[in-house]
Design a protein that fits this description.
The protein is of the alpha+beta class and 582 residues long. The chain is built from seven helices and 32 strands. Bound molecules: beta-D-glucopyranuronic acid.
Length: 582
Amino acid sequence: MLFPQQNPYRQFIDLSGYWDFRIDPHARGEEQGWRLGFEGEPIATPGSWNEQILGLRDYLGPVWYQTRFFRPKSFGEECQIFLRFGSVDYLADAWLNGVYLGSHEGGHLPFEFEVTNHVRWGENLLVVRVDGALARDRVPPGLVDDPDHNHQVGVHPPTTYDFFPYRGIQRPVLLCANPRRGIQDITVRTDIEGKAGVIHVEVLALKDGDRDIDEVRMMLFGHGAKVIVRSHPHHGRSHATLRLNQAAFWSPTTPQLYDLCIELVHDGRVFDSYTLPIGIRTIHVDGDRLLLNGQPILLRGFGRHEDFPVFGRGAARPVAIRDFELMRWVGANSFRTSHYPYDEETLTLADRLGFLVIAETPAVGLFFTEDGLARRLALCKQFISELIARDKNHPSVIMWSVANEPRSALPAAAPFFRQLYNLAKSLDPTRPVTLASDRFTEEAAFEFMDVACINVYRGWYQESGELDAGRQAFARILDETHATFGKPIIVTEFGADAVPGHHAHPPEMFSEEYQAEFITEYIRVMAQRPFVAGQHVWNLCDFKTAQGVKRPMAINFKGVFTRDRRPKLAAHRLRSLWRGGS
Ligand code: BDP
């Protein structure tokens, strides 16, 4: 799915603003005809509703949103018009001028409805119903009472995961106008041959035959290069290979991007174009090493959250920039989109700024008892397909993570993940596939995953207060996991809570010193083991959680920055470890 773009052939308007909002706790809105309009209170969209409207912090839906817009004159009869939602968490139903457009399940991933025949020249009314209830057969699942799982028992709201279930229309809604039967999709794969970059491009254009298209032009610009290839589509598909003999390769230290410009031509006239920034790079697993452009690479960075006071999980561009600034300041080159796909624009920034991203689906807290299992599997497959369709062209994305800390003790888990792995590989054979586990040698799916990602908290949840014992346990886990699977290991989580401003010497749990020492010790252990391909501290920033006895102030304090993005001692320590104090 191509991210909307403005150029002479394609346009969009952003419907962000103050919409009308109304809760529907007894689910009467449908029978009362709210799809035709309702009286509501103002709400900022995008944004989560939980911290905007007092009294709705823990309310998860259903709610209704509405806004009015006019079709711009330039969205003429020759256009195909779409309404595109960046993320609605969790279940969306939409109506335009009272006409039902459809629904979409799952937050964090985009979806669109074609509205060419429903959008009027006068005023239009868009109504969206959002249901964010927690349920066992949703992904991520909720309402799972599992006393064996570390911290998610008796929390409110009853999530199976350790972050607040913010809800709402959380990314922009765009009204897009594209040429009819124009470019539908572009897939780019890159290879390196010596100094040359080889770029395989597939363009999906017309869906209904090749009648209206004479030629597909593919042009690559940048770093003094200009390559043009013309091709003729067959059943709407057009393939070409572009070769740059002296290519500038993309990497965190040199995030070189080229512009790939695609044009569709009919009767000698261009009628559609799309420009995609691309990076030429390869990513491979070789034994127990991870190779970027053929060289071993060490990921240094963080697990993160899309989380900010009042915005909740709503797209907040200044915060996104600040987070990249903070990551660069400490010397990070990587992050995981824990525990769901992040805003598409974040990945575009990662391409530009040179970050290596492990892109994760929303499958956190999965469990494998029969109730709802088939539905959870179908949803996981849907989310993997949507994620890869959305993010496949980002050079920054180097790996797919299909789950975080599944409760995989039951025999149903490994076959479940086998299906997800196969699906991800069939959609994208170029990137390694993984999952993040806290079960180490017991995680049967590591047998077939390309990389073993592990989350370790020894010296925190176990060996509490004992940094030495924790470090030793961590070293053992690394060595045993490596000996069992013989794959590269990425430590996708390690860290300790530190209440900002709390100090203790000798270090004590919840002090900034304990967190800084914990992280330092873990990094030392990893540095001695070349099979460790990545060190991701949990977390970049403090973030909001459900309420529970393990989360004072309903905050997870494992950030090395506070929730308002100020450094703790550990941030300074990381900077000197990762940047050598420079
Ligand atoms: C891991 C989870 C993560 C939690 C973290 C923690 O993957 O979401 O926030 O532990 O306990 O279990 O801080």
